[in-house]
Amino acid sequence: MTSKCIRALVPTLVLLGSMAALAQKPYSVLTQWKIGGEGGWDYLTSDPAAHRLYVTHGPRVEVLDSDTGKVVGSITGLKGTHGVALDDSGKYGYVSDGGANAVLVFDRKSLATVASIPAGTNPDGIVFEPKTKTVWAFNGRSSNATVIDTAQRKVVATIALSGKPEFPVADGTGTVFANIETKNEIVRFDAAAKTITATWPVADCDSPSGLAIDTAGGRLFAVCDGGKMAVIDANTGKTVANPSIGEGPDAARYDAKRKLAFSSNGGGTLTIIDASKPAYPVLQNLDTQKGARTMTLDWVTGRIYLATAAFGERPAPTAANPRPRPAIVPDSFTILVVGQK
Question: What angle do CA 36, 38, 41 make, to 5 degrees?
């Protein structure tokens, strides 16, 4: 290579190096938003276009401005919320109300309730499938999936599962995936046919809970007990990697823009994995806060939002409840905002 070619190549290499450094810039907790109130929580859902953040919190859904953290409203009249799915028109949202065994439909502008649709027992993870315009609610206690036609607002299928389902994802082209926590499996569904097309054992993964998808790369990211993430080929079901994560995970997210996979861990860390490399190396284990086990991603800003609270003493175990959870300190419910400075 001539010196002229080398000189021409240097700016390109510098630019590529700068881009790589930017992509791997450390994450930190940027701010905390204290919401207060009482009750537990589960999933969070981001709506970047509307700058809104939906946070399930006991019998209600708190709706926040995702830029400022200000509470702009709430969805009430529920019994025990788990997740929120959003349609692709910007009009309606769907809440899995586990306590009511139903899916609540709400207007995303007014936050008014539009309908309540019966589901299975304790609907938990929920996802909107855009090709068929259906909502899929996965029922933890009845071990099945309720499929709802959003135009008719009625149940069009109930699909039996082999065990307790956890979080689902959709690939945008008519396929839905869900973890089966009690079987260490991932199930693939044809959304149009409303049938199971594959059941895959997940290698080196105990009790898969959170699930994320890289649609362009054809990869699924399942977070598991025992400090492992399973990276799975979305076409074959083969587990291709098992990077280490923190303890007590419950949610996974994938940032397609930055090619990063995230695991939020109840032990008090956020694991960040480089999904652009075949080995899926861990880039960072960020200290967050104990209990911050669920999260959502704003794919526009790259910010991660996690929910947690302060905890009191753990009660003594009993025969009826051998693994009691510590009490939540009233008015300590908080959203952590994580990003790159």
Answer: 90
Residue 140 located in a structural domain: yes
Average pLDDT over the chain, rounded to an integer:
93
Query: Comparing C-alpha atoms, which of 171, 190, 178 is closest to residue 130?
Result: 171
Distance CA 227, CA 250 (A): 11
β-pairing, 175-180 with 219-224? unpaired
Q: How far from each other are the two terminal CA atoms of the chain, in whole angstroms?
A: 39
| Chain centroid offset of residue 284 CA | 19
pTM: 0.91
Number of domains in the chain: 1
In a domain, 134, yes or no: yes
Task: Indicate if the pLDDT at residue 23 is higher than 60.
Answer: no
Q: Look up residue 290 and give its amino acid.
A: K
Contact 125, 138 (CB under 8 A): yes
**Is 259 contained in some domain?**
no
What CATH number is given to the structural domain containing 164? 2.130.10.10
Is the pLDDT confidence value at 191 over 90?
yes
The owner of tokens 């526009």 is 300
Residues 6+ apart with CB under 8 A from 89: none
Region of poorest pLDDT, from 4-18, 49-63, 138-152, 167-181: 4-18
Residues 6+ apart with CB under 8 A from 284: 26, 27, 270, 271, 272
Domain, as residue range, for 94 = 77-201
